[in-house]
Amino acid sequence: MVLSRFWLIIFISSIAFVLISLFSGNSYTLDFMINGKKDDPIIISEKYLNQVPPFIKDSIEKAPDQTIVIDNITSNPDTTYVYSAKTVKIFSGVQKSDGLLPTCKSTLLDLILPLLAYLAFFCGLMELLIISGASEKLAKLLSPVFVKVFPSVPKNHPSISFMTMNFAANFLGLDSAATPFGLKAMESLQEINPDKAKASDAQIMFMCLHASGLTLIATSIIGYRAAANATNPADVMLPCIITSFIGTIAAFLIVGIKQKINFKSASLVLALMTLIAAIVGLLMYVNQLDIIGKNYFTSNLSALILIVIIAFTLLFSFYKEKKFAEANTTVFEAFVTGANNGVKTGVTIFPYVLGMLVAISLFRNSGLFEIISEWIAFAFSNMGVSKEITDALPVALLRPFSSAGSRGFLIDSMNTFGADSFTARLSSIFQCSAESTFYVIAVYFGSVNIKNTRYALSTMLLVDIICVITAIFVASWFF
Hints:
Number of helices: 21
Structural class: mainly alpha
Strand content: 5-15%
Order of helices and strands: HHEHEEEHHHHHHHHHHHHHHHHHH
């Protein structure tokens, strides 16, 4: 219900704002919101040649292609005059996001189709884990901890192994693997959900822990910083881990209090202390490496572990081939069956993702997001917050809506202020310490047709705010 209303508010407010801008003369056309593409120039006016200033008219007539560009400043989009069919079209600024129709197309071609491929492959592997009995063994091993965090989940339930794989993939920055494991976990939890239209306590806890974004190896962030010629691309790794870890603990405590979980459980405390010890130990090892060593380690650890998981799954399945025969199938046929289920899941979530991304596209292109961002930045500056922090806020504000959009702001901050600036480093921490909340909600709850998400969205947004505040303090402490 909350997600539906929020979606409607984004849609209606964006459309209303655009119509007001059009009829008040602040916008010239709405076509860019329907057909425009990201970074395309936006037409702001159209005049006859004799209506433009004389020096521009002369320049157009002398220009070979009858096009001139003025105010050639890289930090500010150029104003372009294009003479065609007896009129001069004036362009200024660039489009913030794809229009409605290009968003529909890119959602299918650039997002859903790759996701279908990932889902097919990893769901195929998960089918092998299920039939071979590996997932059951993992569930038994972790049940003492998971039954404390997810008291409504039966002991040794298959969802425990799927959630574990999802957390591990997120932990290692393996986004392509995390989503299939997470969707399988949601499907498994839906089987024991008494009200199929309403999110269960276990599903909400899983979603909030997943969305808190606990990441050990921020591979993509390190890659962006390396491309921007940062002195030490991996220097944000420790701040990212600290920020995302605090966000995860906050999510666990907020949802745990709501669900009346026993925080004094010995197995729960032991698991938490083991996790903290593992993180600290790995950080101590990474920190004693030189720059080349850190880059080598961070770029290979995730890939190596993923390859090990794939190899283990195949070898264990071969070792337990009798179980596949008992199930009247073979290892390869089981993989194909799992892959087919993965494709079906991808098709199911497509409408949910499409609806959310189109709403976000309208929200960004309407200019409403930029106005809200400016208001928030202005409020922060009046509170004495430094400009270095307010310059990084667009990344934090857009992150819950769009990973690609916030990534664009991140890259822009590195290009504008320098990769080693405080603003760029803080933007990097913002980017890697939280999830795209609305996308995650649409994908995961949409995959199992959950209509009532209860308090999941509000909790995830609260955790996003906690991560933003934590990131500012951590960045100020380190840099």
